[in-house]
Amino acid sequence: MAPTVNRIVKKRKPTAKLMLGGVAIGGGAPISVQSMTKTDTRDIAATVRQIRSLERAGCEIIRLAVPDMEAAKALGAIKLKVKIPMVADIHFDWRLALEALRQGVDGLRINPGNIGADWKLKELVAALKDRPVPVRVGVNAGSLGRDVLKKYGHPSAEALVESAERHIGLLEEMGYSSIKASLKASGVLPTIEAYKLFSKKHRYPLHVGITEAGPLFQGLIKSSMGLGMIFSEGIGDTMRVSLTAKPAEEVRAAYEILRALRLRQRGVEIVSCPTCGRTCVDLKTLVGKVESRLKGIREPVTVAVMGCVVNGPGEAREADYGIASGKGEGMIFKRGKVVKRVKESRLVDTLVELIQKGLGG
């Protein structure tokens, strides 16, 4: 990590380490990227297809909604056909959580407070002690208890923290501590404050996100601001970007947020200019072609696509590879140094060939 970044992004706060399947969470492990299926879990084939597409996109943990017993019983068949750890998202019915454990899931997401009578939670904890998996206590602003809302008047950061502590306390009292927590609101500022307050008091690993962030454009901005500020405080062990969009977009956005803060590096970062009166090429189309041709690369590499041969190489000096376009031709450069001058029609092919050669492809 560059020295200038160290002054902005605080050292990650220590948390307990959990294993969710083969993925380490907390304890200094890399921040893991999650998503959630948007298929009907009872449709095994469709759900498997979506999870496999997410695996290709780089998703490391997948969560599935379990609305009824049919969905719970489908989890085992799904798990046999995918590679990444699976988390069952359970609300209200403890029997669904018991069945999910029998089906071999790697983790549960529950709110102990809405499971019902104490004996139901005790039965679930007994099953967890026989087959221990991490439990995420997931608190959302939209589902706080009436007494908590009455006390605080609205879903404030303090309300989120108190609710999380209450739910965690139920598990602790029953002797279960393989816990991670999340405290999410659709508002950026209360979410940030809730995570900061909770992190000061506890060392449970934290799953972070801005819940119900919205459609793609708005959701990306809210999630980038919120998650960026949370991570800059050294808080967070695993993440989801919640978008009303294809789940692969959530994964892509997550890695871009982590890359921007230099917390993880994966795949191709495109650096491109906004264009100006010096631009003599359809740069938007050029950028699209470069991005499409390089989308399968997983190694961290920075590629600049600039619309000006005057300032292009200098402005993108930190890029690993790049194009600086002129009228009818352009320059291919590597780390700020021009290596070739080619016709416009050959710019993308020449760049891709150079990158593949450099990466050993």
Description:
Helices cover 41% and strands 19% of the residues. By secondary structure, it is of the alpha/beta class. Strands 8-7-6-5-4-3-10-9 form an eight-stranded parallel β-sheet. It has a five-stranded mixed β-sheet with strand order 11-12-13-14-15, covered by helices on one side. Strands 1-2 form a two-stranded antiparallel sheet. It is elongated. It starts with a helix and ends with a helix.
Entry summary:
The protein is α/β, with parallel strands linked by helices. The chain folds into two domains: 3-260, TIM Barrel (Alpha-Beta Barrel); 268-358, Sulfite Reductase Hemoprotein, domain 1 (2-Layer Sandwich).
Question: What share of residues are in beta strands?
Answer: 15-25%
Strand order in the largest sheet? 8-7-6-5-4-3-10-9
CATH class of the largest domain: Alpha Beta
N-to-C SSE series? HEEEHEHEHEHEHHEHEHEHEHEHEEEH
Structural class: alpha/beta
The CATH homologous superfamily name of the largest domain equals Dihydropteroate synthase-like
Would you spell out the secondary-structure blueprint of this structure?
Layout: H1 3-6, E1 18-20, E2 23-25, E3 32-36, H2 44-57, E4 61-65, H3 69-79, E5 86-89, H4 94-102, E6 107-110, H5 118-130, E7 135-140, H6 146-152, H7 157-173, E8 179-184, H8 188-201, E9 207-208, H9 216-232, E10 238-239, H10 247-260, E11 268-272, H11 283-294, E12 301-306, H12 312-315, E13 321-325, E14 329-334, E15 337-343, H13 347-358
List keywords for this structure.
single chain; 361 residues; alpha/beta; TIM Barrel; Sulfite Reductase Hemoprotein, domain 1; eight-stranded parallel sheet; five-stranded mixed sheet; 13 helices; elongated; disordered N terminus
